[in-house]
């Protein structure tokens, strides 16, 4: 899914800011802040059932990077919201999601040699809708994870879930491709 690549790109960009400690600021102004907006459309074939699908996404958000701690490392906070619609190209029906998410660095550890470890908290939720606009699944909650980034080579070295999602998790264990067939059904 595209949203994962958007979040990963933002995390790597933040990692570049965290790579070296910054001089303490008397005004405590953010090191960086900004907004982003990405719209895309791409076709793919579902692996589990061969269904042709078009994914249309619209994601926007904002971020801020602040200096924290005795080492003056840059901590990242991001807020995103968006919609993704999957169109079943076999019958024209749709299955969609609306989501929000707040990601915030909790602890950053400089491991040396340009490698940092970031413990992050992610809270938010997603609602999924069938072809008629009826909500069919919910996935709210909070998850904590750890990412290790090589800031010199701009590369993610590892990703680990520290605490599984605390929410309803109604999408867990489901086959996305089968959900598209079920929930995009025309005349449902």
Break the fold down into its secondary structure elements and pairings:
Blueprint: H1 2-18, E1 32-45, E2 52-68, E3 73-88, E4 94-112, E5 115-129, E6 135-138, E7 141-150, E8 155-163, H2 176-183
Antiparallel strand pairs: 1-2, 2-3, 3-4, 4-5, 5-6, 5-7, 7-8
The total beta strand count reads 8
**SS content category:** mainly beta
Q: How would you describe the shape?
A: elongated
Tell me what portion of residues adopts beta-strand conformation.
over 45%
What helical percentage do the residues reach?
10-25%
Terminal CA distance? 25 Å
Summarize the biggest pleated sheet: 8 strands, antiparallel
Average residue-wise pLDDT: 87
The arrangement of helices and strands along the chain is: HEEEEEEEEH
Q: Helical region count?
A: 2
Estimate nothing, just give the exact number of structural domains.
1
Report the radius of gyration as a whole number of Å: 19 Å
Uncertain spans: 1-26
Report on this model:
With 188 residues, the protein is mainly beta. It has one domain (2-183). It is built from two helices and eight strands. Strands 1, 2, 3, 4, 5, 6, 7 and 8 form an eight-stranded antiparallel beta sheet that branches. The longest helix is centred in the first third of the chain and has 17 residues, at 2-18. Keywords: Signal.
List keywords for this structure.
eight-stranded antiparallel beta sheet; 13% helix; elongated
Please sum up the structure shown.
This is DUF1579 domain-containing protein. The chain has 188 residues and is mostly beta strands.
């Amino acid at each position: 899914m595209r949203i994962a690549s958007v979040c990963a790109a933002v995390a790597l960009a933040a990692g570049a800011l965290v790579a070296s400690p910054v001089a303490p600021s008397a005004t405590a102004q953010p090191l960086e802040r900004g907004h982003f907006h990405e719209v895309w459309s791409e076709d793919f074939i579902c692996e589990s059932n061969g269904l042709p699908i078009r994914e249309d996404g619209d994601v926007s958000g904002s971020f801020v990077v602040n200096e924290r701690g005795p080492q003056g490392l840059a901590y990242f906070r991001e807020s995103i919201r968006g919609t993704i619609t999957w169109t079943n190209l076999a019958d024209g029906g749709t299955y969609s999601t609306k989501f929000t998410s707040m990601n915030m660095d909790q602890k950053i550890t400089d491991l040396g040699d340009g490698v940092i470890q970031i413990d992050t908290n992610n809270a938010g939720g997603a609602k999924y809708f069938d072809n008629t606009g009826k909500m069919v699944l919910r996935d709210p909650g909070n998850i904590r994870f750890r990412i290790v980034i090589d800031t010199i080579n701009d590369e993610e070295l590892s990703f680990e879930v520290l605490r599984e999602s605390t929410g309803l998790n109604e999408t867990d264990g489901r086959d996305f491709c089968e959900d598209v067939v079920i929930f995009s059904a025309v005349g449902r």
